[in-house]
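User: Run a structure prediction on this.
Assistant: Running it now.
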Amino acid sequence: MIDGKIGFSRVAPDSYFSTEKKILEPQFMFMPYTVSYSSRIIKRSTVDYGAGIGLISKNNFNKFHLSWKRDQVSYEVESYFRGFNSDTHDGFYGLLRRQYHRITFDYSTKIIKKASFVSSWLNIGLGAATNNNSYNKTDVHLSYTVNVAPNTVLKEIYLQPFSERRVNTFFQIGLENDFNLHKKYFLTLNILFVQGFGELSRVDYVNSYTKNNEIELYRRGLTSKGSGFYLGISRRFQVFPKKIKSS
């Protein structure tokens, strides 16, 4: 199976300085000398893969499935700043993705019975996701030498994952659409939504300054539950009985 994902992230509650509640609006983060925003919906989707085993009932109306998938969480940040006594602005854009793995047990029941071309299944499932981050500066960091105030120089802006191992659970719901070719099963198109419970991943958005020859770091946390919308393509291979039924 191959999935494309549109994911969600948010500014951590301890770093949240805005009362804006609209889900489509970026969240504002207060940082000295910069105007910074974090996207809640990461529109630049990711593509990942997985595999699984399952069982289909004899009447071909019920399916049970256990699967493993490699997945990703994404963070997107924009910052704008201006040098001291300067009339021009500069900016920073960071898109950080972190891999994790999830195991899902799901059940599907056919809601559109056998048709010549397509059959649809309602899918619901539960699972667990595990994430193992390393605490290191990432390749999205940029180095600057910008005097943003008297005796204050902006040196670096970067995103930095927490060093931790996290596990959370999630709920899955969606549709599976089996397509037939010449009255034989060909492939499946999945449209799913996954809602995570509990924080799965966290990164820091960091501004580094040199102020009076001393280094000062300002951090804001960004978190993700691993939730998102998935559009995927998969193919079943029937082991027993060997003849593949049309859906």
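The mean pLDDT is 83.
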